[in-house]
């Protein structure tokens, strides 16, 4: 460990890739596990919580860590792949220490923890040595003053708070992709999960919910009051919202649909009306739809929307008005690659691919998969018998329905 820095802050460590001796990435750092025995003595860092193979979280003892630098963590490569289970005597630094209210004894300053530093002691053990504390904001200041104190100078570290805030943890989660943030939330203790859910914006919570297993989605929605739950459902993609509402008790589902905006609720109810595991049930009702008088420049502006998935941004669907699904007559699709080759001022209608067949709402999973494979597509339009566009099926929608129900707990994700 001689090449490791003398002091490492937890907020900078979380998210770093973990490599084996051969240089292959085996996971990512998600938290630190420490044993807090008393407030006077520096807690020993027992190890890292690492995320491997998607949702699986394992424990990596600090004795297996050979080097830590600014961009990565190296291990001996000998990792136990058993799922991490926190013991009662263990504390998660990010999950449980961040946002804890403490007082710096030497100055009387009270604030919340926003970061923690660890250092190697003479015994070669890693210990928590310093605490970064932020005071509450005062006056017109958006953020309070910050202080860094030695561990022994701070009190309140071993006290559990039933109403612990989630400000710093939310800040850390907002730096992660929705799928990674969902993984963190999935493993939080119940009281911390509740606080985090309460503090997330509706839009961010919707993004995270879409990445959580169904049982977590139902549980989280269960402790949201009706108006907030409806607002979050409105922020979700209609197909994901439909799948979630279908898992709720009928009375709760009906109540939430009544609280949603009528147009949003109508989209969800229409998707719920289709037979399970068909193109209609798995499609999104909000692809990029333009009229035939739109220009290539208009189309490119729409697909640049960062909220679109790569699959949804791959195609523009051109229809006669109305342009909300179900649309007027469907004219065809324009591929993003073709749009990039055309002059921006020309009409998108001149770049249509109208050569392929369209999916029907009753198409089965196997038929959808064969269709995407046949035409080398990552998305395809779903059209009714009268030629109206109803939505689009993307390859991620297809995979979501083809994989086992618990795939989010076992999925392989690299980097």
Automatic annotation (TrEMBL):
Report one GO cellular component. membrane
What Pfam families does this protein map onto? Answer: CBS, MgtE_N, PRC, SH3_actinomycetes
Q: Which GO terms describe its molecular function?
A: magnesium ion transmembrane transporter activity
The answer, when asked if Transit peptide is one of the entry's keywords, is no
Keyword line: CBS domain
Q: Which InterPro entries match?
A: CBS_dom, CBS_dom_sf, Mg_transptr_MgtE_intracell_dom, MgtE_N_sf, MgtE_transporter, PRC-brl_dom, PRC_barrel-like_sf, SH3_actinomycetes
SUPFAM superfamilies recorded: CBS-domain pair, MgtE N-terminal domain-like, PRC-barrel domain
- Provide the CBS domain boundaries: 352-410
Query: In its keyword annotation, does this UniProt entry include Translocase?
Result: no
- Identify this protein by name: CBS domain-containing protein
Organism (species): Nocardioides islandensis
Q: Tell me the classification of the organism that encodes this protein.
A: Bacteria, Bacillati, Actinomycetota, Actinomycetes, Propionibacteriales
């Amino acid at each position: 460990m001689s090449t490791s820095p003398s002091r490492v802050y937890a907020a900078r460590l979380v998210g770093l890739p973990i490599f084996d001796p051969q240089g292959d990435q085996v996971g990512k750092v998600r938290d630190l596990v420490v044993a807090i025995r008393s407030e006077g003595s520096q807690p020993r860092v027992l190890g890292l919580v690492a995320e491997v193979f998607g949702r699986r979280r394992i424990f990596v003892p600090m004795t297996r860590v050979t080097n830590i630098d600014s961009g990565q963590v190296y291990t001996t490569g000998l990792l136990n792949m058993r799922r991490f289970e926190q013991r009662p005597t263990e504390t998660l630094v990010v999950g449980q220490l961040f946002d804890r209210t403490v007082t710096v004894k030497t100055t009387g300053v009270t604030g919340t923890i926003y970061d923690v530093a660890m250092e190697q002691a003479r015994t070669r053990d890693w210990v928590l040595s310093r605490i970064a504390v932020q005071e509450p904001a005062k006056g017109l200041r958006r953020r309070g003053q910050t202080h860094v104190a030695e561990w022994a100078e701070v009190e309140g570290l071993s006290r559990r708070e039933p109403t612990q805030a989630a400000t710093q943890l939310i800040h850390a989660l907002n730096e992660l992709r929705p799928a990674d943030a969902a993984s963190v939330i999935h493993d939080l203790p119940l009281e911390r999960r509740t606080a985090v859910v309460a503090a997330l914006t509706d839009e961010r919570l919707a993004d995270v919910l879409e990445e959580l297993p169904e049982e977590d989605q139902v549980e989280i929605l269960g402790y949201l009051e009706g108006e907030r739950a409806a607002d979050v459902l409105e922020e979700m993609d209609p197909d994901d919202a439909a799948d979630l509402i279908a898992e709720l008790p009928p009375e709760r589902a009906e109540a939430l649909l009544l609280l949603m905006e009528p147009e949003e609720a109508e989209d969800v109810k229409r998707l719920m009306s289709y037979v399970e595991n068909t193109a209609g049930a798995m499609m999104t009702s909000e692809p990029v739809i333009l009229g035939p008088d739109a220009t290539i420049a208009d189309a490119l502006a729409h697909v640049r929307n960062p909220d679109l998935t790569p699959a949804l941004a791959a195609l523009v669907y051109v229809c006669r008005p109305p342009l909300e699904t179900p649309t007027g007559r469907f004219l065809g699709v324009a591929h993003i690659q073709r749009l990039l080759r055309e002059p921006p001022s020309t009409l998108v209608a001149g770049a249509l691919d109208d050569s392929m067949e369209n999916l029907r709402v009753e198409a089965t999973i196997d038929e959808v998969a064969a269709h995407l494979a046949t035409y080398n597509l990552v998305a395809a339009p779903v059209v009714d018998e009268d030629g109206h566009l109803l939505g689009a099926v993307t390859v991620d929608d297809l995979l979501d329905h083809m994989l086992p129900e618990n795939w989010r707990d076992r999925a392989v994700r690299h980097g």
